[in-house]
Design goal:
Elements: H1 18-53, E1 59-68, H2 72-84, E2 89-90, E3 107-108, H3 112-121, E4 124-139, E5 146-158, E6 168-176, H4 179-203, H5 206-213, H6 218-226, H7 228-257, E7 263-265, E8 272-278, E9 284-290, E10 311-317, E11 322-329, E12 337-338, E13 344-351, E14 354-361, E15 367-374, E16 378-384, E17 390-396, E18 403-409, E19 416-421, E20 426-431, E21 440-446, H8 462-469, E22 474-478, E23 489-491, E24 497-505, E25 508-514, E26 519-525, E27 530-536, E28 539-545, E29 551-556, E30 569-573, E31 580-582, E32 589-594, E33 602-607, E34 619-623
Helix pairs in contact: 2-4
Length: about 625
């Protein structure tokens, strides 16, 4: 209908109906436009999520290794290469001084937060983080060397969780001419020691367990085969560690049981500690401590090994086991000894083919290298006088050469050659009475022929001459500050082999002796020039002298005088009549007794029954 009221017919030709067709087309096109836009929007969002928002897929077998501190780069890369050999995939991380794309397998000198971020970016399942710190530095055995002690703490962090495995601390000490050389020496040792613990922590994560055990597809079979050797070695290590822990628990129980005998031990479990001496009143002990933590290799059947850790000298208060570190050494070549007054320690170190006699003042911590010798020359068997003022040691030019007993002030000075003596000679200082300041005369026990320049009053009589001409030993007293001096006096016996010098008290020298038929003790009165012997029920080894004059040492079942001992025990013998007191009754062996100047306390090393041959363990114990 038109505006004027007339009616118009609609044409059958679609081309003539333009306005209506345009509206229809618009209505039909709109859903397609919306659909295409939606698809585009979803694609863009998905791309943004995949590319920018969604984290990369995490792979349990991928590991990022980071380290900080001296030698960090070398340690991290060495550890990464070792992990690759055992089935893991190590990925590169952000290295601050390396160009992009540098072929490094680890990151170094970055914080833990940065390392974890890099691990997630590269899809690593875990981060191994090693923190290295130098714990001490000091002068070495020669003027051109320095001693460096360091430790590394390894941690394993899982990327997808906040879980962190237990920290493992590794110690190391070395001596070299420069700090750089010392650090280079430590690198391989750190990596080798850290590897088993780190791998155990990695394999223990739930993600890794699922990764290895997934056999639903070909990748699972490949993973299981790739880690088969590593998993088997981990099982062996776990079994060995379980055995070690069981032994430690038995050792702890064994030491606790000694309290029924009145014996207390400052060492527990599988620790390895050695007794150097007691202070004057017996309230504190100087103890040499070694690491008792087992380490297991990857390349061989797991066996208990010992990583090279610095030996520590610790002063231990017996009442509460409170400890103070006195000194660190790379390699203590001989037992450290403590002066009877408890103020000065002496020992021999060995490093880089050089041997050195070293003293440490327990109060000030002052360390002095008294004398040193480069191989083939050697210094050995350092001992210290009761008052801590003099040190005596054995010096020789070569392994089989003639040796000389040397004397030197404990604070440093010029060494004096007292006398030429054989290598197996032993000596103690004897405090002579009747002087304003007692002189520590040196008593040397030896079977070496007497010096030709010995004075008449030092020459032995017929009985003494017979003693020195056979296998028996004689004792010579020397002045400690006179070079190449003749002996002041000679002590010998024709019938008895004077075996060891126990020590001196109140102007008397105490010894042990043995013959083919018996064992016993002897007392030499320096003032009266008299030597008296008493037979004992047992033979005594490594003796000392108690404040009441009793000779205390390791009694052992040997020869006709064995008595009823079934193992080596600590015994005390009255030298006046030979009567015996058995101070310990333990399963295996007690040895190296140390006695204070005052009181009857006796400290000693205890070797227990808990499989000592496979798991070395030495405990320091004492009884009053």
């Amino acid at each position: 209908m038109c505006d004027d009221g007339t009616v118009t017919e609609q044409s059958d030709d679609p081309a003539l109906d333009v306005p209506d067709d345009i509206d229809g087309f618009k209505q039909a096109r709109w859903p397609w436009v919306v659909g295409v836009a939606a698809v585009l929007l979803i694609g863009i969002c998905t791309g943004l999520y995949v590319g920018l928002i969604r984290p990369p897929e995490i792979h349990a077998d991928r590991v990022l290794i980071a380290a900080s501190g001296p030698g960090a780069k070398a340690v991290a890369n060495d550890l990464a290469k070792r992990l690759q050999e055992h089935g893991f995939v190590t990925i590169p991380g952000p290295n601050p001084d390396e160009p992009d794309g540098a072929p490094l397998t680890s990151t170094y000198d970055v914080g833990l937060k940065e390392a974890k971020s890099a691990a997630r970016k590269h899809g690593a399942g875990a981060v191994i983080y090693v923190t290295i710190a130098i714990t001490s530095q000091r002068a070495g055995l020669s003027s051109t060397s320095r001693f460096l002690s360091a430790e590394a703490v390894t941690q394993v962090h899982e990327t997808e969780t906040e879980h962190q495995a237990a920290e493992h601390t590794i110690g190391f000490a070395t001596e070299s001419k420069t700090q750089e050389a010392a650090i280079a020496t430590m690198v391989a040792a750190f990596a080798e020691a850290a590897l088993p613990k780190a791998v155990d922590d990695l394999l223990a994560s739930p993600a890794m367990k699922n990764f290895v055990s997934d056999k639903s597809n070909l990748e699972g079979h490949i993973n299981a085969a790739r880690f088969k050797g590593t998993l088997n070695k981990q099982r062996l290590r776990t079994e060995a560690q379980k055995k070690f822990d069981d032994q430690c628990q038995r050792a702890t129980d064994e030491l606790a049981a000694l309290k029924k005998q009145g014996i207390s031990c400052i060492t527990a479990g599988c620790d390895e500690e050695y007794l150097s001496g007691l202070n004057a009143d017996g309230t504190a002990a100087l103890v040499r401590v070694e690491s008792g933590t087992p380490l297991y290799t990857f390349d061989f059947e797991p066996k208990l090994l010992r990583f090279e850790t610095p030996d520590r000298l610790e002063l231990v208060r017996l009442a509460d086991n409170k400890r103070r570190t006195i000194a660190l050494a790379q390699n203590l070549y001989t037992y450290p000894l403590l002066s009877a007054n408890g103020r000065m320690a002496v020992f021999v170190e060995k490093a880089g083919g050089r041997y050195g006699v070293v003293t440490v003042d327990l109060q000030s911590g002052t360390r002095v290298v008294l004398d040193s010798a480069a191989y083939p020359a050697q210094v050995q068997n350092a001992k210290i006088s009761s008052d801590g003022s003099l040190v005596f040691y054995y010096w020789r030019k070569s392994k089989h050469g003639q040796g000389t007993l040397m004397s030197i002030p404990s604070g440093g000075g010029k060494p004096i050659g007292i006398a030429d003596i054989p290598r197996d000679a032993d000596w103690v200082d004897v405090q002579l009475e009747g002087q304003t300041k007692p002189l520590p005369v040196i008593a040397v026990i030896s079977d070496k022929p007497l010096p030709t320049d010995a004075p008449n009053d030092a020459r032995p009589d017929d009985a003494q001459q017979k003693a020195t001409s056979g296998s028996n030993k004689w004792i010579a007293l020397y002045h400690p500050k006179k070079s190449d001096a003749a002996p002041l006096r000679v002590i010998a016996d024709a019938d008895r082999h004077i075996d060891q010098i126990a020590g001196s008290r109140a102007n008397k020298l105490y010894v042990t002796y043995r013959t083919r038929a018996e064992c016993g003790v002897g007392v030499y009165d320096v003032a009266q020039d008299e030597l008296a012997f008493q037979r004992t029920e047992v033979c005594i080894k490594d003796p000392g002298v108690r404040s009441d004059g009793y000779i205390v040492g390791e009694g052992y079942p040997s020869g006709r005088g064995a008595g009823k001992l079934t193992s080596s025990e600590i015994v005390a013998v009255n030298p006046a009549d030979g009567t015996l007191q058995q101070l310990t009754r333990t399963p295996l062996r007690d040895r190296y007794v140390r006695l204070p100047l005052q009181g009857k306390r006796a400290a000693f090393e205890y070797l227990g029954m808990s499989d000592h041959s496979s798991f070395p363990r030495v405990a320091v114990c004492y009884r009053d």
